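Retro notes, item 3 of 5
We never archived the inputs for the NAP complex last cycle. Fixing that now. Sequence and ligand:
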Amino acid sequence: MDTHAVEGDKRDVLDCDVVVVGAGVGGLNSIYHLLGQGKSVRAFEAGSEVGGTWYWNKYPGARVDIESLEYSYGFSEEVQQEWKWPLLYSEQPSVLEYLNWVCDRLGLRDSIEFDTRVTSARFEEEANCWVVETDGGETVRCRHCVMALGFLCDPYVPEFPGLGSFEGGFVHTARWPAEGIELKGKRVGVIGTGASAVQAITTIAPDVGELKVFQRTPNWCFPIRNDTIAAGYEAPVKADYAEVRRREYAEGFAGMILVDGKIAPARMTPALDATSEERETAYWERYRVGGPHIFFIWADQMSNLDANKTLADFLAERIRERVHDRETAAKLIPDHPIWSRRPPGESGFYEVFNLDHVELVDSRANPISSFTPGGIVMDDGTEHELDVVLLATGFDAGAGALNRIDIRGRRDESLRERWQAEGVRTLLGMMVSGFPNMYILDGVQSPACFFSPPLLVDAQSRWISRVVGRSGSPHVK
Ligand code: NAP
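Structure as it came back at the time:
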C-alpha cells in the first residue's frame, strides 16, 4: 500500500483499496483473500454481527442441507482442521458460531463495520475509483468494490390483500426475531413449502395447537437423517481434506462428494443401463444413509427425463409409505422433474402430516384470496382462523439485493435501470461491463443455490483477489 498521497491531487487519495459489502459466508471469504494480497479492506455489514444468511435466518429448524464437513471453508487448512462440528448437518446457531470463530481466528473482524448498510456506490471515472456511501452518513473512496450480498438476502413478502389487517402476528422466516416467537398451543399457518418451510414446519409442529400448511407447489425432499457426528467419522475426512476439497470441485455434484464420510463420485453409467433392481438397491442405499447424494448416483439423473423419473417414482413411493392419508400423500408428490427446483432436505417432514392437528391446505387448487383480521380466506371462501402466520415465501433472489443499492457505473449509468431495461447480463455472474472494478459474489447468473456456497464463494473470491492483486496500488490515506 502506498501511503504517500499526491500533493494537491485529492482525487487520487483513497480511503482503502477495496470495500466489501456484506460479511456473510462470501464477504468473510473475500476479506480474507484480499487481506492476503496485502490490500487494505473496509467491509460494511448491515447486521450486528457476521453471518449474513446465518445471522438473519433464525427461524426454528434453520440448518444446512449440505453435510457440515462440506459446508465449511476449505481455504485454510488450520481452520478446517481445528473446527469440530457437533452435527452431521449443522443448525443455524452452530454455523453462526463457526463463522464468528473463523472471523476471529483469521483476524478479519477489525476490517468490518457492523450495523451499517451501504446505500450507494458510484464509479468516479476521472479518478478511477468507487465512492461508497453508507446509511451512517459515511463516504468511502476505494479502487475496488466487492458486492458480497448473497443470492438470497431480500425476503419476499407476497402482496396478499388485507395482510396488514391480520390481527395475529406474521413474520417472514428470514426475519425471525432473535428472542423467538411463542407458538406453543397457537393456531399457526405456514405459507410455502420450500427449504425454509420444510425445516420450520418439522420443528414447530409438535408444539403448536393447530398447524395449517399452505402449499402451492410440493417439492422433492431428500432425507438427511441428521445426527451427532459419530466417533471416528470425522478423522478420515480431515486426514484427506485437501483431496476431498479438490474432488468436490472436480467431480462433486453441486460441490458435494462425501457419502457417509467417504469420497463417492457419481457413477459414469446411465441409470437406464442398470436393471430396475440395481437402481432400487442404489436408491435404497442412499435413502437409508440420507443426504443430497441420492441425486447423483447415475450420470444421467439430471439430464434424461426417464432416468430422472426412476428416482421420482422411488421417492413418491416413500412419501406414500410415510404419509398415512392417501389424499394428503398425493398432494405432497410433485409433478416436476427432480432438481428442476431446489429439493429441500428433511428430517421427519412427511410424518408431520400424520399428526391430528396438522392440515395440508392445497393453495394451488384453491389459492389464497386474502387475509382478514382473523386469518386467511381462500378463493372458494373457506376461512382458516389463525393466531400466527409464518411467511416462508422465499426471497427476491439474485439481483434483488444489488438493486436496493444505488449503483452507478461509467457515465453515471444506474445498474438497476440497465438491468430493468435490458435484462441481467454479467461476466460469469461476477462482473458487469460499464461497472469497472466492481465484483459480485454468489450473485445472479453464478451457480448460486446450485453449488455449495462456501466453495462457490471461495472460487470467486480467489479469482477476484488475484485480479485486485494485480491492479496498481492507489494512494491510500
Ligand atoms: P422458496 O424455495 O422460494 O419457497 C417459497 C415458498 O413460498 C414456495 O413454496 C412458494 O410456492 C411459496 N409462495 C411464494 N409466494 C407465494 C404466494 N403468493 N402464495 C402462496 N405461496 C407462495 O424459499 P425458501 O424456502 O426460503 O428457500 C429459498 C432458498 O434458500 C432455497 O432454494 C435454498 O437455496 C435456500 N435455503 C437453504 C436452506 C438450507 O440449505 N439449509 C434452508 C432454507 C433455504 P411456489 O413454489 O408455488 O412458488
